[in-house]
Amino acid sequence: MASNELLVGLDVGTTKVCCLVAAPNQNGGLDIRGMGTSRSRGMRKGMVVNIESTVESIREAVAEAQGMAGCQINSAYLGVAGGHVSSFNSSGMIGVGKKMISEEDISRVYDSALAIATPMDREVLHTVVQEYKVDDQVGIIDPPLGMTGVRLEVQVHVITGAVNAVRNLINCVMQAGLEVNEIVLESVASAEAVLTPEDKELGVALLDFGGGTTDIAIYSGQRIRHSAVLAMGGNNLTRDLSQSYHISLESAEKLKIEHGCCNVNISNDDEFVDIVTPLSATPLKIQMSNMRQLLCSRIDEIMFLINSEFVRCGYDELIHEVVITGGSSLLRGATEVVKIVLDRPVRLGLPGQSAHIGGLAEIVSHPSYSTAVGLCLFALNRGGGGFRNVNFNRNESKSFFKKIIHSLSSFFSNKNSF
């Protein structure tokens, strides 16, 4: 298969960088061709804090993916997260004069919904058509072409990001030698990988527990209704252990993965674990109950913020199920805690639950790869679900991040020509 027929997803996270190469299969899903991962150096809470380190991490992951897939990677669909991401809903309305609704009418009402003032330091990442309304007829998901009415309305979900934060990430990818096809919100990508059409129809909240952030996406009626990014994740737990027990972050991460638990109902008060650290000649004894209480305190804080976000957005009653994914979702007891706090059924989301994944599927059968798989699925389906990615919409003069990608691409091309 030619390299231009391959789909590449690039997840530049706080703890790891993942580059995934896939190809469309005959079942409407993906065949995994190769994957590369590297330790993320230069990112904090989903944002770039060191350009050079981030570029090197991206290059390492891309090189490994190229070696496994046996191809040259020139471009990728890029995941974006971070506390700078926010969203809101907007509506638009036009008169259509008792005639059949045309494509021009659809575009006009869509533009009227986006006639909103955004701060100078922010720009639109995604827009998602939630539903149309023709006169008093509501709940129309697909464009009502050919329908007759007097008034046409649309409800749109708008996702925005900080200009400089996104620009820095694009800059890193460009310096690593890749073009950026599209920018995709990571919770949207993860939803493509782990949520089924039934989930999205009935009402579901996706919680993507990453290292630096916790991403939230609420779906109902096949459409995304709300999205948010909390600047807290698994790294907060690691730092709590590191500071409380005076051990390195590496030792704290190992302790969390191998022995961490956030379920207060698990009784192991008399158990201890020995941790060998480079800073101590003798093993450090840690009481399991003490560590559990420490982790539970931080998890309670994160869950409080999630529950507050559910209530604040006004879609709390639409959520009938919660799906958790991301590397930090594997912390022992996490599923039970989410179920208790949010008082809803909870399941662990794994890549491939929404579409057929073939090829080297076993290498991505882990919740930490949900975003990378979802980026490739997003590319395969071009978003679907009402998405109109403003990076590549019909009016490129309004496409701010498209201009950034083009200008940076020209800059690095000219730089390399000397």
Structure report:
This protein is an alpha/beta fold. Among the domains are: 86-162, Dna Ligase, domain 1 (2-Layer Sandwich), CATH 3.30.1490.110; 196-349, ATPase, nucleotide binding domain (Nucleotidyltransferase, domain 5, 2-Layer Sandwich). It is built from 11 helices and 20 strands. The protein has helices at 51-69, 103-113, 163-175, 186-194, 197-202, 234-245, 249-259, 288-313, 334-342, 370-381, 400-416, and strands spanning 7-12, 16-24, 30-39, 43-44, 47-48, 75-80, 86-100, 122-134, 137-140, 148-162, 179-185, 204-209, 214-220, 223-230, 272-275, 284-287, 321-325, 346-348, 357-359, 387-388. The protein has a 6-stranded mixed beta sheet with strand order 11-6-1-2-3-19, with helices on both faces. Strands 7, 8, 9, 10 and 20 form a 5-stranded antiparallel beta sheet that branches. A 5-stranded mixed beta sheet has the order 14-13-12-17-18, sandwiched between helices. α1 (51-69) packs across α3, α4 (186-194) crosses α10 (370-381) and α6 (234-245) packs antiparallel against α8 (288-313). It is globular, with a radius of gyration of 22 Å.
